[in-house]
């Protein structure tokens, strides 16, 4: 999608209440082709399914796209959208920004300064709350933050940087920090370098003589000690999220003598009064967005972070360390259902005669040995295999080999099986498929 739509709630006393912001930077050539305008119409429809009707509309783009306004308003008129959406000259705000992140609203520079903060804040807030930036809290796991503190939530800014136009929006937010003297943009993690690159790309569109700076990632807490920052006074330092201010302080301690902490930009910052046990530290740098202003108060109150003696660990929650772009589990959800006949799989009647009354599947099986715990569902695979005589059962072996071809690497050399007869039987069934090479079985 070429357009980023989000709501902006604006001060009522200034008479611009619920607003829709439409942001784009794509240049489309000399005008916006009809197919993209139709896309925009569909996006507005989707928007209205999820948000309050808007009183005003902000069209936000860079000043090379000034001619797009007439395409959009003309489209609204042509398709009667202006009437149904109640858009008129009085409630449409045409916002153009320049290479410094400044600009005009309806050709008025003063109005830009008046609306700039709300346009930026609302967009960053929308991205954070609608793109899964905050993971947790859950009862079962908590997170080891890069600072080594433990917290029941983990904030992953990479999640908001997935769509091109939204990355460009963050690039627009960063434009005002990207002055002509900037030679380097140092990011705390590689996952936000796309935002820095977007800012540079916009700058290059808007200022043809701008020289693109070097963009690099210093690897957050893990990499900062050994990283060699070149020319810090002519560099921007971009920190994705600050939970406790430690990274920005560490960074400032390293480069502080050579620059001002104004060059350290924190995209999202926790409030300083998070519950738990963290020793206070004076945070450095300036934040684009404070989480306590964009997350519901009860959610903020539920965030807890521990520097030591983690109460989450002691309450049987598992600490999970997140490094890089690893897969993370979704929040667990338990749904109770009553199994009815309609759920019966069609294959069940074929196997029922083999299984019923043989104790191959036992619910709440009692302990056999002292170290056994009671199993909710116990599958006696060993007994089942003996009954089926797997090695001679052609039907089973055919299906099993088919499954192996899909799942097991053809370079398999050794199979190590658990020390029970069922595992040994399965391991031996594995070998025929790999007859053209020697496969060793080890228990
Ligand atoms: Zn913990």
Task: Break the fold down into its secondary structure elements and pairings.
Blueprint: E1 4-9, E2 18-23, H1 34-50, E3 56-62, H2 68-78, H3 81-84, E4 92-97, E5 103-105, H4 109-130, E6 134-135, E7 141-144, E8 150-151, E9 154-155, H5 164-174, E10 184-187, H6 193-206, E11 214-217, H7 220-223, E12 235-242, H8 246-255, E13 264-269, E14 275-277, E15 286-290, H9 291-294, H10 297-302, E16 304-306, H11 311-314, E17 318-321, H12 348-355, E18 361-365, E19 375-379, H13 381-388, H14 394-407, E20 414-416, H15 421-430, E21 440-442
This protein binds zinc ion (ZN).
Task: Provide a compact summary of the structure.
This protein is 33% helix and 21% strand. With 443 residues, it is an alpha/beta fold.
Rounded to an integer, what's the Rg over CA atoms? 30 Å
Tell me roughly what share of residues is in helical segments: 25-40%
Kindly state the mean pLDDT as a whole number? 84
At the fold tier of CATH, the topology name of the largest domain is Rossmann fold
What spatial order of strands do you see in the largest sheet? Answer: 1-2-3-4-5
Largest sheet: 5 strands, mixed
Low-confidence stretches: none
Q: What is the number of beta strands?
A: 21
Structural class: alpha/beta
Intertermini distance: 55 Å
Strand content: 15-25%
Bound molecules: zinc ion
Structural domains: how many? 3
Query: Which architecture name of the largest domain does CATH use?
Result: 3-Layer(aba) Sandwich
Just give the CATH class of the largest domain.
Alpha Beta
Kindly list the characteristics that best describe this protein.
443 residues; alpha/beta; Rossmann fold; 3 domains; five-stranded mixed β-sheet; 15 helices; binds zinc ion
